[in-house]
Amino acid sequence: MFHRTLLFIGVNLLANASFALPKEQLTAGGIAIIPLPSYISENAQVKFGSNLVPVITREDALFAVVGIPLSHKEPELSITITDNQLSDHLTVQLSNKDYPEQRITLQETQSNKVTPSEDELARYSREAIEQKTVYQLFSSSQTKSWPNFAWPIKGRISSPFGLKRFFNDQPRDPHSGLDVAAPEGKAIAAPANGIVAQTGDYFFNGKTVMIDHGQGIISMLCHLSKVHVEKGQTIKQGDIIGLVGQTGRATGPHLHYGVSINNARIDPLLVLPTVP
Question: What is the 3-state secondary structure (H, E, C) of 78-120?
């Protein structure tokens, strides 16, 4: 087996290219777009850690589109390429990004959403496993093209991605998506073509739809008042998947929209068009 290590310094040329790829942001919570060497075939397997990475074809070139977890602390990111008997490593240099804090006060009636009971924690653990299973999906894409994303709903971004969150002054996980404020009952559209991988009514996320767009690219839409799709259903961009609500841990009606690539939650603004 042939092996070598290459150093790739990320650039933002692809963000302005005429063909569709997500925006690059070489930080935790961002995306690395890595051109693959010309001798790599489109059947190559690319991994970041233990997770498969989408390989996208554009203008006869191959690109690995790598989601960078919010938890990533290293100054660089390495992917492994396996193509028949060939094995390569590509390394990308990353930058630091300091996300701001957000402090949220929940009313007494929602105190269990800050300090859950043992039964509620057990429920959350079961639900987390179910959601993790979806995030780890990797269904092959015959076209190897990047999905065309659109905003699932129009409205004001009330909470951006990556915020260091405190609920009633208690630190919790960073915000893994973005929140769009909207009236209760407003229709929510599928952001891109895909298959409904899971629906559920979860302790923290409320009524939720998870969509598999192929190659480990997953959308998560949370806090719905109603869900209009079911698991296994094939949907097209623009199909109504549910209605805005405030189920789960929420202080008002809004849509939480999250995007995951290779099991890493990334800033949805990197895949969406300009804010409507």
Answer: EEEEEECCEEEEEEEECCCCCCCEEEECCCHHHHHHCCCCHHH
The answer to whether the pTM exceeds 0.85 is yes
3-state class of 169 per DSSP?
A: coil
Q: What is the pLDDT of residue 2?
A: 42
Nearby residues of 121 by Cβ (< 8 Å), 6 or more positions away: none
Q: Model confidence at 124, in pLDDT bands (50, 70, 90)?
A: confident
Of 204, 90, 65, 205, the C-alpha closest to 146 is 65
**CB-based contacts of 122: which residues, under 8 Å, 6+ apart?**
none
Q: How many residues appear in the chain?
A: 276
CB 207 within 8 A of CB 223: yes
pLDDT in tens, 15-36: 434 347 999 999 999 999 999 9
Burial 13-45 (b: 16+ CB within 10 A, else e): ebeeeeeebbbbbbbbbbbbbbbbeeebeeebe
Cβ atoms 187, 261 nearer than 8 A: no
Alpha carbon dihedral 209, 165, 52, 63, in 10-degree steps, equals: 100
The Cα 76–Cα 34 span in angstroms is 13
**Contact between 92 and 32 (Cβ < 8 Å):** yes
* Contacts of residue 36, Cβ cutoff 8 Å, sequence gap at least 6: 44, 46, 55, 61, 62, 63, 64, 81, 90
- Domains plus CATH for the chain? 2-93 (2.60.40.1590), 101-270 (2.70.70.10)
